[in-house]
Specification:
This is D-methionine transport system permease protein. It is found in: Cell membrane. By secondary structure, the chain is an all-alpha fold. The protein has nine helices and no strands. The chain has one domain: MetI-like fold (Orthogonal Bundle). The chain has helices spanning about 5-40, 50-65, 65-75, 75-80, 90-110, 115-125, 130-165, 170-180, 185-215. The longest helix has about 35 residues, at about 5-40.
């Protein structure tokens, strides 16, 4: 069969929109959560065992739920927020809930890689905990953070494809509706190829940006 390129381009745009908006909202959730997971842990700037235990537990719960199950489980919340449980906008809700805790862990790991001597030096200069986080901890971890966000973005591309299983729109929905259910191998081939190119492009871009930041 001939490929309908208008459909392909529309699905590609839907995928980009889903990944883009989900990434923004997930960072808004994941960045402060990741920072809190670091600074509230024992022996750190704002040590608080109760807060750390609760946050870590919540993150672990969301990370343990497979995305396809999470999509179904949060349908009532999705309907409450966007008014529907299908389509591109509806897919963003579970994608954010899925990727936010994941990004938090990536940020936590990146910040924990920073040499403790950097914080010691900042404290010796009289920097407050907030100043240490903003001016020392995050800048030192920026290269690693970039790689972490690249991984998270690629994960969102995969999640957007899975969202097609419940009518989430995008390339995944197109591949399932036309490529699989209608046995259209041309559509399946094109959508898979585009997804592979997207992932390769994102990984290459993330590597380049991370290397540039590291050299500064």
């Amino acid at each position: 069969m001939l490929v309908n390129w208008d459909q392909i381009l529309e699905a590609l745009w839907e995928t980009i929109a889903m990944v883009g908006f989900s990434l923004i909202f997930a960072i808004i959730i994941g960045l402060p959560l990741g920072i809190l997971l670091v600074v509230t842990r024992p022996g750190h700037l704002w040590e608080n065992k109760v807060t750390f235990t609760i946050l870590s537990g919540v993150v672990n719960i969301f990370r343990s739920i497979p995305f396809i199950i999470l999509m179904v489980a949060v349908i009532p919340l999705t309907r409450l927020i966007v008014g529907t449980s299908i389509g591109t906008a509806a897919a963003i809700v579970p994608m954010v809930l899925f990727s936010g805790p994941f990004i938090a862990r990536l940020i936590e790991n990146s910040l924990l890689e920073v040499d403790p001597g950097v914080m010691d030096a900042a404290q010796s200069m009289g920097a407050t905990p907030t100043q240490i986080i903003i001016r020392f901890l995050i800048p030192e971890a920026l290269s690693s953070l970039m790689l972490g966000l690249t991984i998270a973005t690629i994960g969102l591309v995969g999640a957007s494809a899975m969202a097609g299983a419940i009518g989430g729109g995008g390339l995944g929905d197109l591949a399932i509706t036309f490529g699989y259910q209608r046995f259209d191998t041309a559509v399946m081939f094109v959508t898979v190829t585009i997804l592979v190119i997207m992932v390769q492009g994102l990984q290459s871009t993330g590597n380049i940006l991370s290397n540039k930041i590291r050299r500064r």
